Amino acid sequence: MVTSQHSDIDVVVKKILQVSKQGQKEYITKVKVISRLRHRNLVRLLGWSHDRGQFMLVYEFMQNGSLDSHLFSKNCALTWDMRYKICLGLVNALDYLHKNWEQCMVHRDIKTANGMLDFKFNVKLGDFRLGYMAPEYIKTGRPSCKSDVFSFGVVSLKIVCNTPNPYPSPEYDYKAL
């Protein structure tokens, strides 16, 4: 976390390591797209730098960290109301990206680690993976909102079950909620 000298906001600086020529193109694309997104449930990109071959992104600081750090801790304090609000916030972010922005935007990396929580536990979706290619993208040549929706379903299941791996296994026939 870094505090800006020009204002009283805290920021997070994400340094991108070992940027290839392809990585540089992806970085520039990411900056151009993400810097224009504005929604209450998206982590805001505040700035960027690619000075002297170092590529960095500056995001708003999320005081309560990632969703997974709360869900999968021994003393999870997320109430059912908070979990509902988190799921609703993620849905609102996806609705904005898929239907209400200039063009359909696919996040491509919906997971609990990318659900960030502010000081009031409002969720904001972060860490877009514009370089990641889902299987259907490789198959069809086009990214699809369907992969985000499927991933949201997995995240919702993890939120409800309070476990990093909610899939049935031979050891367990059910999980007590």
Automatic annotation (TrEMBL):
Gene3D superfamilies: Phosphorylase Kinase, domain 1, Transferase(Phosphotransferase) domain 1. Pfam families: PK_Tyr_Ser-Thr. GO terms for molecular function: ATP binding; protein kinase activity. It comes from the Eukaryota. GO terms for biological process: response to other organism. Residues 1-177 form the Protein kinase domain. Keywords: ATP-binding, Nucleotide-binding. This is Protein kinase domain-containing protein. It comes from Gossypium harknessii. The lineage of its organism: Eukaryota, Viridiplantae, Streptophyta, Embryophyta, Tracheophyta.
